[in-house]
Structures are given as C-alpha cells and as structure tokens.
Amino acid sequence: MAIHEPRSVHDIECWLTDMDGVLVHENQAIPGAAEMIAHWVSTGKRFLVLTNNSIYTPRDLRARLLSSGLDVPEENIWTSAMATAEFLRRQRPGGRAFVIGEAGLTTALHDAGFILTDQDPDYVVLGETRTYSFEAITRAIRLIAAGARFITTNPDATGPSPEGLLPATGSVAALITQATRREPYVVGKPNPMMFRSALNRIDAHSETTAMIGDRMDTDIIAGMEAGLLTLLVHTGITKPGDVASFPFRPDLERSSVADIFNELLQGPEAAPGKASGPHED
C-alpha cells in the first residue's frame, strides 16, 4: 500500500470551519477569525462556515456574525437545517414533513420543495427551538408511531442561555425515542453526512479540503470520517490536555485560527506544526 506524506494547510484548496469556539466565542470574534475570513474571500477560496444550530437562516446568522465583527457572506454559511433539507430532498423529492423547529429549518425545507404538514407526513423532522411545545411533541410521537420516519438536525442534548443550560434537540429526541422505540437519523455533526453535503455545496474534494474545529467529538471525528484534513484549535471545547483521551487524533493542532492564518501567509516554507503522522491508503 502506498504511503503518502502528511497533508499541510498549503495543500488545501477548500475550507470548512466550525463557528462557535473557532470563529466566535460569546458573540465576540476570536482573534484572527476576521482576517482569515477576509483572506479566503479576497483570494477566492471556496469555504463554508458550519453550525449544528438549526434555528437561524443563513441571513440571520450573517447578521449575527456581523455584529460580532465577522463579515461572512450568506452563501458561505451551512447549517444542520440546510444539510437536513438537502438530505431529505435527495431521499424523497417533494415529500411531506411535520416539523418541530424554527425559521432556519422550515425555510430550508420549503426551499428544498417539501410540504410542511401534520397530515400523513413522510417524515417527522426535529430541530432546535427555544419553545418546545408538549402538543407538538405529542403529535410527533403519534405520527412516528403511525409510520413517519424520524429525522433530527443534530444530536446536541443541551444548549447555552444566559440563565444556564437549556434542553436541546438531542434531549427532546430521546423523549420521543423513549415513547416510540424509534431512533432518529441524525444529519448534523458528528455525522460526516453534513460534511459531505457541504463539500457538494462548494464542489470540493475531500483530499484538498480541511475542517477547522474546536471539538474532538464532533468536528474532528466527522472531518476524519469524511476524509478531510482536520485542524483542532484550542479556543473552544477541547483543550490540549484532552486530546490524548480520544482514540483518534487531529491531523494538526493550533492554538487558534490566528496561527492558521499566519501559517498561510508565511507560505509553504513555514515550519511544520504538530501532525498525527503519515496516512496510509
């Protein structure tokens, strides 16, 4: 079997990056993030900013990022809602769905040609919302029990709020599963399906695409399974001392996106960073 040299950031033509913990933290841009985005835009790089949050439309997220100091074009944002809609469009064009979620999810499904209904749907699609309704959850349980397929946008069990943790999609999905004995198909990270749909979106190839993330258990494992170069930054969830506890490693580790940006500016002559070693085919 052929052994290839490890890939570096200078081999990369297209970029995927997580949002929270990589580009922003508590609604503030992480140092280097604005420069990195501007560099990708000015050099014509194909890139997408990924988020498991299905609440917001790309237009909403662009506005939120602008308020944090990041100018990300609307077309460069890819959410779990969009990935879910694209997956379902390929599975059942013009299908019917009962949806629990916000505008980010309903808009994506409408754009994908789905009819949103609580009458004989093909799918029950569960996404993020700040106002989970007992009535809607009960309706979802009955529809799934009657044969509708169960889909969720992401597996996150909790979400943040100023007052503390909130139950999120994964927690509500567990409730529905307990009532129906039906496990959902989860489209968002760590399912590499979300990354594959993102690659298709920008016509990218896995061999020349990188994923920048702050979580080993979502960003890095999904990027690895999708065949991407994986870069872990230490500005979010996973800290340097945590990496050894996982049975897999990122290809590269950097303190922040500022380091990646500086490395790109320095060119291929820059000193190599810590890598996980060569890959075998």
From TrEMBL:
Taxonomic superkingdom: Bacteria
A Pfam family assignment: Hydrolase_like
GO MF annotation terms: hydrolase activity
SUPFAM superfamilies named in the record: HAD-like
Keywords recorded for this protein, A-Z: Hydrolase
Transmembrane region(s): none
Family to which this protein belongs: Belongs to the HAD-like hydrolase superfamily.
NCBIfam families linked to this entry: HAD-SF-IIA (TIGR01460)
Protein name, per record: HAD family hydrolase
Organism, scientific name: Paeniglutamicibacter terrestris
